[in-house]
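Deviation from plan, reported transparently: adenosine-5'-triphosphate complex.
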Amino acid sequence: AVSYNDVAAFVSMPLSSSHIESNSSDDDEESKSFPMKKLAIVMVGLPARGKTHIARYIARYLNWLGRTTRVFNVGNYRRELVGASQPAQFFDPNNQEGRQARWELAIKCLDDMIAWLKHQHGQVGIYDATNNTKERRKYVKERLEAECIRVLFLESICEDKSIIEHNVMETKLRMPDYQNMDPETAVEDFQRRIANYEVANETIEDDEMVSYIKIINLGRTIVLHQLTGYLQGKLVSYLMNMHTLPRSIYLTRHGESEYNVEERLGGDPELTPKGQLYAVQLAQYIHKEFTAQGKELPLIWTSQLRRSRHTVQFIPTHNICWRALNEINAGLCEGKTLNDVKQLYPKIYEDRMKDKLHFRYPGGESYVDVIQRLEPVMLEMERLRESILIVSHNAVIRAIYGFLIGKRQEECPNLEVPLHVVIKLTPRAYGCEEARIELNPHEELLSDSPSAPSSNVYSDAIPKQVYFGSSENSFSDGNKN
Ligand code: ATP
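Because the crystal trials were delayed, the predicted structure below was used instead.
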């Protein structure tokens, strides 16, 4: 059992980063985005309804779009103070002591979120707790509105017992709460915990006079009420694309190009023999991963530039060529090496070194521009149920990879994405599982100029390419971006 003294001591502690779920950078870092009214997204729902999953899913998107977002998870506060191994009785509404302790922890978590939004440049706080009674929501709303913070409630409702059971098995058994407990006992305990919350559960009603989104049965139904504002509209289209079906996203840069060898930015160069060999190896890898296992080939997305399209030439399916997947446009610096840029335009070189994210090549693009043009592609990627192979360029793959693994914009320009490596990302509850497959085309294999996979499995392949957007190649490459 928890003593009030423990709780009292804990709630007076300053904000601790261990309670916060975020990969955000330091609090005192100035946000570079345009000013906006602070927004609090208040999660609502019984346990195992995907609240934490949805909260992190939203945080990942908003941080990538440059909105400093954090998840404040009451469960983490509880585990920190009272320890992870509280029995279901702790959550029993008739247990006065447990109830009081949970209430105070919830308030401490809310206080921390308000402090972060008000004083530490936070833009969107996500309050991840059950908040499943009218009384609790009224309190939270009044506290937030008193601080001029806009409030959006987001309720996840799920009546499908098999989904809930799957959620408990997938996520709850791995929680510190159930370490060293046999799975059967753990599931029973968690079901009792849910039952305790069900006693008092109240879904959001219109008479509460709040803005809300309800996601019912994994998004089969979505209800919107009194939503206003740009960001809320964006969130709705993002959430409408959310699903939890199993699949993987494969990311890779094109094979080595002539400009990679010369260390030049931009242009539309061809693959080198080594790059072509990578195209063969990539086709073999995809064959092994899909066809050989009786699975359908993944969707293939490339940019409209030759080195990217030609990297998938041996995979026997059509590819979609997105203009939005073209490399960052280096403008004035197209075709130059970084050394040329340093000599010819020292100021440009310096500016880029100082702030790679916001630096825009004269007549070209910045990383922020690239992220913005990628947003519709990311929404489409989220919507689709199939596995996808994306073959693109350094800056673009960094941005997509950053999106998938939940990086903030600032981190994207420095992510490690070498040539000739496939990054396989498999979405799981709360995040992505990552594997890196190094294909490394070896010099000794280059004597036979590659034209098709050595196993000849794709010798009859005539790849079809579908263009999205204009096909004019106005963007450029640069392995230095
Ligand atoms: P708790 O209140 O105990 O923290 P929770 O509501 O936060 O529980 P999660 O821990 O997020 O629940 O549950 C994660 C599981 O929920 C994952 O298996 C995920 O696939 C699943 N999930 C994701 N979205 C939904 C949804 N809209 N409805 C039901 N389950 C979902």
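Residues 68 and 122 are 6 Å apart (CA to CA). We consider this an acceptable substitute for the interim report.
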